Amino acid sequence: VQLVESGGGLVQPGGSLRLSCAASGFTFSSAAMSWYRQAPGKERELVATISSGGGGTNYADSVKGRFTISRDNAKNTVYLQMNSLKPEDTAVYYCRRRFDTRYWGQGTQVTVSS
Questions:
Q1: 81 and 70 in contact (C-beta within 8 Å)?
Q2: Are 108 and 50 in contact (CB under 8 A)?
Q3: What is the mean pLDDT of each run of 10 residues along the chain (114 residues)?
Q4: What is the C-alpha separation between 56 and 70, in angstroms, rounded?
């Protein structure tokens, strides 16, 4: 199993970023996928989840209405569109199979600052 996140960076408050997670080593189209994040000094938290077919999504209250999770099963990739970013969104973002705690990617840093 390999998970490779990308798309992070430095953005001003109110800005947008789109994260990508390229997956391999398992049947991607059969797996619910999630994005997590970990801010300095805090525990890793679940941000968003998408069902295997893409028809169902769930979000943490802190990002609801601002973030959108999506997937392209033909490309084995899950995305996280982040709009109206706030300084408190600053964290390392990771993707993972929703029900498999064994494998994590290296993460991608998102910094929201003026």
A1: yes
A2: no
A3: 97 98 97 97 97 96 98 98 98 96 94 97
A4: 10
